[in-house]
Write a structure and sequence with these properties.
Elements: H1 8-17, H2 23-34, E1 53-62, E2 65-74
Antiparallel strand pairs: 1-2
Helix pairs in contact: 1-2
Length: about 80
């Protein structure tokens, strides 16, 4: 698996290489979900994809208010994965 930079350019370039139709949207999702690469919800999970893996306390917006929940987030072997 290719190593990619945990940066706007690294994420958007990789998205472009793998054929994302809108690589800038992939990079925008990275910004939103990871705080510009500072906080991953699971190991190498910059998109906040839920599933089996790391159990994390997270804030989500439900019924017009922010609530804190524990959720499972998928762990990936690399950012590129």
């Amino acid at each position: 698996m290719a190593d990619i930079a945990n940066s706007w350019e690294g994420i958007s370039s990789h998205a472009r290489r793998v054929g994302a139709r809108f690589p800038e949207l992939v990079a925008a999702q990275w910004c939103l979900e990871s705080g510009f690469g500072k906080h991953f919800s699971g190991k190498n999970n910059f998109a906040g994809l839920k599933g089996q893996g790391s159990s994390v306390s997270t804030k989500e917006f439900y019924d017009g208010k922010w609530v804190t929940i524990n959720a499972g987030f998928i762990n990936f072997p690399s950012i590129a994965a």
